[in-house]
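F.,

This is the one I mentioned.
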């Protein structure tokens, strides 16, 4: 891994290195570009491809979904629906899924907000009603692995929130994914993926119902499709490749730090693994450990590509500088491998999830602890939140005034309405006096 020292290159240079490309700045590989040119007849950008797919699905419904699934995935489909059937997977894996599901339910149940009413004047009231969304679409990627954990993390909070119907689209409906979906409480599953699946859920087709919101991770085409349909329905966030940032002291375990960096690097060649430490010696030990552990990874090729491309170790002058760098980066996952992690916690302003101490590694949050693993990436933790129960809820204001209370407020309302030139607004009040 590349090691840089902040005292030698300066803070501005470090921040430049920590700046990640936005999700829509990801360049398509020559292989994907060649495949796209064969499909579409010309070398289109990812944005152009997505806009064409979304537009066609909006216009032609199922036919466009079928055509693009054949063109892009090489799969011929007619009936999109997947039957759940009986759960038939390894009993030990099933038991682990059930433990994770229960932990996720318990954690998200604590997040439920309440409707409320407060009284004003003589029996007038104001309030807020918390209302679950009616129908939500969950996207589960196919990719190079199955993701039952993503199924649980997206469906269970929606169920806890009270969403009436949850549909799921995935191009890789294997047994483990289907088992997780059934345990989580999905209502319908469709075997389609990519931008065409996002468009189908956003606009509805003959087979796929229109949803109010789309959640779930995906590749660049899925993410751009979510951006394209936003406004026709809501989305959770615009997520990019996975990332981890570790702040570690000299006395931390370099074997642990290296393992945690690689836990994200194996996701994707574009994944980002960063260590910020106050010790040059520790930095070198971690870099050596990364090389050692890489040799034994089944997904070595992917992890090595990510480390070579986006792996970085920064030697900071002190912990305060390390925290400043971390807040600037706003990582998806932030680990604090220091003796007193809770002492640093008040200083952390930007992170999707924070893992405190040597025995709270990132995979604990990915799979079993209970907090959601759908997190903001690419620095968007500066303004996005983790996916949670409120992702699936709406707030509606309640207003009820008595005649006397309206009369008391009328002069102020009429004065403000007239100041804006909205005389019909003023009249709607004065006509009641």
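My design for it:
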């Amino acid at each position: 891994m590349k090691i840089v020292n902040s005292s030698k290159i300066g803070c501005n240079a470090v921040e430049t290195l920590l700046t990640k490309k936005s999700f829509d700045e990801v360049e398509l590989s020559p292989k994907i570009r060649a495949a796209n040119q064969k499909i579409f007849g010309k070398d289109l950008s990812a944005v152009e491809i997505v806009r064409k797919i979304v537009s066609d699905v909006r216009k032609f419904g199922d036919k466009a979904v079928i055509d693009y699934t054949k063109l892009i995935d090489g799969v011929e489909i007619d009936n999109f629906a997947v039957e759940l059937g009986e759960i038939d997977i390894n009993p030990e894996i099933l038991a682990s899924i059930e433990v994770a599901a229960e932990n996720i339910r318990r954690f998200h149940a604590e997040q439920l907000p309440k409707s409320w009413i407060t009284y004003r004047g003589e029996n007038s009231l104001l309030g807020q009603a918390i209302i679950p969304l009616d129908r939500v679409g969950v996207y589960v990627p196919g990719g190079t692995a199955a993701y039952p954990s993503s199924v649980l993390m997206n469906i269970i909070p929606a169920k806890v929130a009270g969403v009436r119907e949850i549909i799921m689209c995935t191009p890789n409906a294997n047994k483990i994914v289907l088992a997780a979906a059934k345990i989580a409480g999905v209502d319908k599953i469709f075997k389609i993926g990519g931008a065409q699946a996002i468009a189908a859920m956003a606009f509805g087709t003959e087979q796929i119902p229109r949803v109010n919101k789309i959640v779930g991770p995906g590749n660049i085409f899925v993410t751009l499709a979510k951006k394209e349909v936003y406004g026709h329905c809501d989305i959770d966030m615009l997520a990019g490749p996975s990332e981890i940032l570790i702040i570690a002291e000299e006395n931390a375990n370099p074997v642990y730090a290296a393992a945690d960096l690689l836990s994200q690097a194996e996701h994707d060649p574009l994944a980002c693994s960063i260590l910020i430490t106050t010790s040059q010696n520790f930095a070198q030990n971690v870099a050596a450990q990364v090389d050692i552990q890489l040799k034994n990874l089944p997904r070595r090729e992917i992890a090595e590509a990510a480390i070579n491309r986006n792996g970085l170790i920064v030697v900071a002058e002190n912990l305060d500088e390390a925290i400043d760098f971390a807040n600037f980066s706003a990582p998806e996952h932030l680990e604090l491998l220091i003796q007193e992690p809770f002492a640093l916690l008040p200083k952390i302003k930007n992170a999707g999830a924070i893992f405190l101490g040597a025995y709270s590694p990132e995979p604990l949050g990915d799979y079993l602890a209970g907090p959601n693993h759908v997190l903001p990436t690419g620095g968007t933790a500066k303004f996005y939140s983790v996916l949670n129960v409120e992702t699936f809820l709406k707030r509606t204001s309640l207003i009820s005034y008595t005649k006397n209370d309206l009369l008391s407020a009328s002069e102020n309302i009429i004065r403000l309405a007239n100041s804006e030139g909205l005389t019909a607004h003023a009249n709607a009040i004065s006509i009641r006096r």
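Residues 91-109 form the longest helix (19 residues).

Talk soon.
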